[in-house]
Amino acid sequence: MLRLKGRRVVIFAEGYFGPVTSKVATSYLRYCHEDCVAVIDSRLAGQDVGAVLGYAHGIPLVSSLEAALDFEPDVLLIGVGLFSNELPTAWRSQIAGALEAGLDVVSGLHFRIAHDHAFSEIASHSGSRIWDTKEPPEILVTSEAKLGELDRFVIHTVGSDCRVGKKTAAIEIMQAAKRKGFNAGFAATGQSGIYISGNGVAVDAVPSDFVAGVSEALVRQVAEDHDWIVVEGQGSISHPAYSGVTLGLLHGAMPQALILCHEAGLTHHKGWPNVPLRPLNELIALYEQLAGYLRPAKVVGISVHCGQLSEDEAADYIQRIEEETGLPTTDVIHFGADRLVDALAAYRATLPANLVAPRSQGLSAVREVHAA
């Protein structure tokens, strides 16, 4: 794993840079903009990143890798995701050029750059390193569902859909908890979170049988140094394509507390106009039921991504969600995460000293089936 902190990073987002279309880039820039020297997108060349995103001001948008090299970067970070494992042909020359120039290349694509013979040959001659964050861990094990043995508080952000702010909510909760004196750590489960925190596993690249086991191991790792473990969520339990990784992560992390993440005004799963979102109260009940098969978990608050709404509009929308669900609700970017941290701390205070051991009913049967 390459460390990005303190490096000179150029982000490749050709044709995609924007608040919605380049989630990896925009997430990284929100928390690590001080390490970014330029962003590549020829459509927007000459503009400032801050003018596009509303934050990370002072970073130029440039037309090509050649233009970005003037800023003396040492890392090329691919800042967009794709919906397949194919690499766009037009990207090959940019990646090859970065490797030839001695830049390390960091990618969260399902296409493995290090496995490509041409790229690996260039890297071997230039000394560049390639970090494919979608490589699963070397050791894969199934879950043992034993996190209840840990005297720790596990919090998990879950969603009504993809790209509704689960990672952002998790990071903001972790940071706010630290400010309030809690020893909180962040468990990254996707490439953006890994780039920001410097640790974690991209669980969407893990074979499905091992998602829960890898998630369990990740929680144990973060628990070595932290009392609160805030686990980044992925997908949505009702999503027609990504529900599998959501459930594997939910059962592997065995959280006691859940934060439901939603996007203001969203009525259907993004890109799935024939699949309406389930009502929030239905999702709350579903997440609690599915998590509760291993140990009781409660949705204690809601984080709403209010996007381009004004602060007043966001406040009105949040109030409506609170009235609908009866739960403390906020937009962690507009208004901060303190309300959620206060709700989490209050809920933790109601748990037994050992933070509730896992339910035994059903676990022995699961292990017997696995052993068979």
Describe what this molecule looks like in 3D.
With 372 residues, this protein is α/β, with parallel strands linked by helices. The protein is globular. The protein contains 13 helices and 14 strands. It has helices spanning 23-32, 49-53, 65-68, 89-100, 117-126, 166-179, 191-197, 211-223, 243-253, 280-291, 311-325, 338-349, 363-371, and strands spanning 9-12, 36-40, 61-62, 75-78, 104-107, 130-132, 153-159, 184-187, 228-231, 257-263, 268-269, 272-276, 298-305, 329-330. The chain has 2 domains: 9-132, NAD(P)-binding Rossmann-like Domain (Rossmann fold, 3-Layer(aba) Sandwich), CATH 3.40.50.720; 147-371, Rossmann fold. It has a 6-stranded parallel sheet with strand order 3-2-1-4-5-6, with helices on both faces. Strands 8-9-7-10-13-14 form a 6-stranded parallel sheet, with helices on both faces. Helices cover 36% and strands 16% of the residues.
Task: List descriptors.
372 residues; alpha/beta; Rossmann fold; 2 domains; 13 helices; 14 strands
